[in-house]
Amino acid sequence: MIKRAWSRAAALAGGTAAVLAMTAVTAAPAQAAYWGNWHILAYSDQCLDGSVSQGVRLNSCNGGSHQTWTKFGGYYGQIKHYQSGKCLDGSVSQGVRLKNCNGGSYQQWYPADNGDIVHYQSGKCLDGSVSQGVRLKDCNLGVYQGWW
């Protein structure tokens, strides 16, 4: 069963540059998700992985710098990729990608109470599957949107 709960208090407390450190996945999660630890897609134990050359994708969790992200800003904030220094940027037409950080609405994200990660500009959720990739889709409480 996928545990999809966010701690709003933790999200607010972690709003100042909380580092999303990579941890090995050995069993089902025993804790609620929060801004400081959301990068693993719960249904597949795949991690959010990014590079300038290969884009944003899901990959086997390995603890590398390609899977380390920093959230900064307030409740609505940017998510910075450690390895490239670029920000997670989303658009319905262009997809989810890494772009130079600019503070614009395409780079603003927030945690929903149900465990989804919502893109501020579009109102759509961060959605990922190994076969379809990482993208923005209507929020649907589905397993492809269950980050922890």
Automatic annotation (TrEMBL):
<feature type="signal peptide">
    <location>
        <begin position="1"/>
        <end position="32"/>
    </location>
</feature>
<dbReference type="InterPro" id="IPR035992">
    <property type="entry name" value="Ricin_B-like_lectins"/>
</dbReference>
<protein>
    <submittedName>
        <fullName>Alpha-galactosidase</fullName>
    </submittedName>
</protein>
<dbReference type="Pfam" id="PF00652">
    <property type="entry name" value="Ricin_B_lectin"/>
</dbReference>
<dbReference type="InterPro" id="IPR000772">
    <property type="entry name" value="Ricin_B_lectin"/>
</dbReference>
<keyword id="KW-0732">Signal</keyword>
<feature type="domain" description="Ricin B lectin">
    <location>
        <begin position="35"/>
        <end position="148"/>
    </location>
</feature>
